[in-house]
Design brief:
Elements: E1 2-6, H1 16-24, E2 27-33, H2 35-40, H3 45-64, E3 68-73, H4 80-90, E4 95-99, H5 104-115, E5 120-123, H6 145-159, H7 195-208, H8 213-216, H9 229-234, H10 239-249, H11 260-280, H12 303-311, H13 317-329, H14 334-347, H15 352-362, H16 368-378, H17 394-401, H18 406-411, H19 442-453
Parallel strand pairs: 1-2, 1-4, 2-3, 4-5
GO molecular function: deoxyribodipyrimidine photo-lyase activity
Enzyme class: lyase
Domain Photolyase/cryptochrome alpha/beta: 1-128
Length: 459
Amino acid sequence: MNLVWLRKDLRISDNPALAAAMASGTTLALFISSPAQWQEHNLAPIQADFIEQNLQSVVNELAQLGVATLHHQVDLFTDIPSFLLDFCQQHQIQQIFANTEPELNEVRRDRAVLEAGLPLQLFEGHSIMAPGTVFTQAGTMFKVFTPFRKQWLEKVAQQWASPLAKPIAIGPAVEAIKIELACPKRDSSAWLAGEDEAQQRLSAFVQHKVADYKTYRDMPALDQTSGLSGYLAVGALSAKQCLHQVLQHYPDALNEQESGAFCWISELAWRDFYRHLLIAHPKLSMGYNFVPKAANIQWSQNDDDFAAWCEGRTGYPLVDAAMRQLNETGWMHNRLRMVVASFLTKHLLIDWRRGEQYFSQQLIDADLASNNGGWQWAASTGCDAQPYFRIFNPIRQSERFDPDGTFIRKYCTELINLTAKNIHMPKANERPIRYVKPLVEHSFARQRALDAFAVLGKG
């Protein structure tokens, strides 16, 4: 009996571990939920619910392919090796098949399973190019994205292979169990679960939106992004499948650097970049700054400011609308993630780790590699981050990317009657009584941030 150990790879097609297990003979699937570990990792209740829904979809599909799934709760990763020893003995498991995960605790978990003598075989399924395959001439991990992308594009062009097809049934259909995860959950039904839904969304995006992606991707009032990040985060869709679809429709996209398709492929490359970094620099999983000098930044401990940011009460309309979008929907537009992260770290001088944790606790698409990479980029503490003296002006960002205030009005309803000119930062005599005053004035905040972050510029 083979065992396929399901993780955040909740799909049937392009699942290397599942394909190898089913090709080797009779297969049993197992999902191990770890609520205490998840809580330690700040798993968002909305993502927990999305995992449950997508896992149920996988269980149902596997049952049709003749593969039964079992679900067991093992609260902490450290308890998994002993559980698996008993499980494999009980079910006469000859081989365990699983896909790797890049986060440090997950890497340590797998190492402990192997050290316990269990027959675990690991496959690479979370990146387009496997970590360790894209490197400098010195054989080290890149510290700048652009040369990484150049090398990554060359490797993709040379080594690209189509995603794995859905395995064929290995026996008659079996009964599917009902999945219920014993952890805090929040309704995720605004995102329909399942691999089929993910594939349909991907196809619709590639056919109808990717050509204009570069033009419209920064406009939060428009539905012009892929909306696939949640599916990628839980593994209902693979990054390889995304790249495959784009190249099917735009065969020359890897070379057409001004195209919308290339722009979106670059986002997939950024995703790989941050995952490769997590493997090359395990301390990133532990909350360390990538830039050591960033340890000298004096962060503010103002809990009232942090609470105002979390709740969308900063007095900066675009920042507040973005945070309310996050709290109401469990998702935030990517341009706005940069704006609110810059505001927290530069305008309020609050440690990026607090923002990263809050995002993890709220986002349906939370992913440690991308979340950490994005926050450290915004805070100027990360690998190939924006320079510390680049400080987003949230008013200018608002005027540029939400020019008529459509997005702001959707989430800051108290500003609904303001004109497009005034909505980006209402004047005192036009500010509705129900809308808060700004926490901090921009020019003052900018200078304060330059002073605080100057430690990054000193040798």
